Amino acid sequence: MADGASLVTAILLGRCPRCGKGALFRGVLDVRDTCESCGLDLRSHDAGDGPAVAGIFVIGAVTVGLALWVDTRFEPPLWVHAVLWPAMVLPFSVVAMRVAKAALVALQWRHRHGAT
């Protein structure tokens, strides 16, 4: 796209919203200060607490529903719940927060710069 990278590319691959080439993240969840490819200043694009709240609401609700279903259907011992749910929730939470952060940063950039 002339006015920036594909929104899907920026969100799913964690790329710069302007060029689509540089990595958006430094590490797992830390947004870079600038794009390593095009130099876009990313410091002003703050995702805030939105990704964490999305993870808590969506993943939390799904997990509680699944835990109740597993408990009533299979009646496993308590230790199974203690091992199973954290092992599922932690990776899903990190992925959800990474995608949500990338989406918020990309949408902020598009909105602020009038990209279509």
UniProtKB/TrEMBL annotation:
Pfam families: DUF983. It comes from the Bacteria. Keywords: Membrane, Transmembrane, Transmembrane helix. The chain crosses the membrane at residues 52-70, 82-100. This is DUF983 domain-containing protein.
